[in-house]
Design brief:
Elements: H1 6-16, H2 23-35, H3 38-54, E1 56-57, E2 64-65, E3 79-86, H4 89-98, E4 103-107, H5 125-130, E5 139-142, H6 148-161, E6 167-170, H7 186-194, E7 197-198, H8 199-203
Parallel strand pairs: 3-4, 3-5, 5-6
Antiparallel strand pairs: 1-2, 6-7
Helix pairs in contact: 1-2, 4-7
């Protein structure tokens, strides 16, 4: 029989679901919350609950937002002819930190990974293709991880976009193979954006 009360065990289970958090770390987190004063613990739980209630997907780019349109899409000074295609919000933050990109984004919501059961239907691909209909978009920059899954996703999307007439480019290979955008320093990522190349060039190497 477990000596851990069920209420505490449930909190440990919840923390253990976070990426990179094992049960020992989850138990330490749970005890920290338990030792906090009631007001602090209530504020912590209410903050998480409010995040679930108040956040949604931007209707345009599918990024996480607290309104129908995120701050980037709602900004009239952004270049609406260029879309930077990224995996998730972390990549948006990384690209914005470079100060080198003034276009819009599209958050794919993941990358193709058959081993994890993630296929095209699980990604925000229809929403991306729908953005081409009014003819405003002239270029899509593929800024996905330089991994096998990322490259597979780029190739799949390239084939999907070939008939749209939109120019498809990719980051120059200043980004190390096997790495995500969040791990690249701002200077390297910024140069990779500025020196982007036609996607066809990257697959013919």
């Amino acid at each position: 029989m477990s000596v851990v009360p069920k209420a505490l065990e449930d909190v440990v289970d919840a923390f253990a679901q976070l990426p990179g958090v094992g049960r020992r770390t989850a138990f330490r987190y749970a005890l920290h919350v338990l030792r906090a004063d009631r007001e602090q613990a209530d504020r912590f739980s209410e903050t998480i609950a409010r995040m679930g209630r108040d956040l949604c997907r931007c209707a345009t780019c599918m990024n996480i937002s607290d309104s129908e349109q995120c701050t980037v899409c709602a900004n009239p000074t952004r270049d609406r002819s260029v879309i930077c295609l990224v995996e998730d919000m972390r990549d948006v933050i990384s690209v914005e930190a470079t100060g080198q990109f003034r276009g819009l984004y599209h958050v794919l919501g993941g990358i193709l990974s058959p081993i994890d059961g993630i296929g095209p239907a699980d990604l925000h691909i229809p929403q991306l293709l729908a953005r081409f209909k009014d003819g405003t978009v002239c270029e899509v920059i593929l800024a996905l991880p330089a991994t096998m899954e990322g490259d597979t996703t780029c190739f799949y999307l390239f084939r999907q976009m070939q008939q749209s007439g939109v120019k498809v480019t990719s980051l120059s290979r200043g980004i190390s193979v096997g790495g995500g955008l969040e791990y690249a320093d701002e200077l390297t990522l910024g140069r990779s954006i500025m020196n982007r190349v036609p996607y066809e060039n990257s697959i013919n190497r």
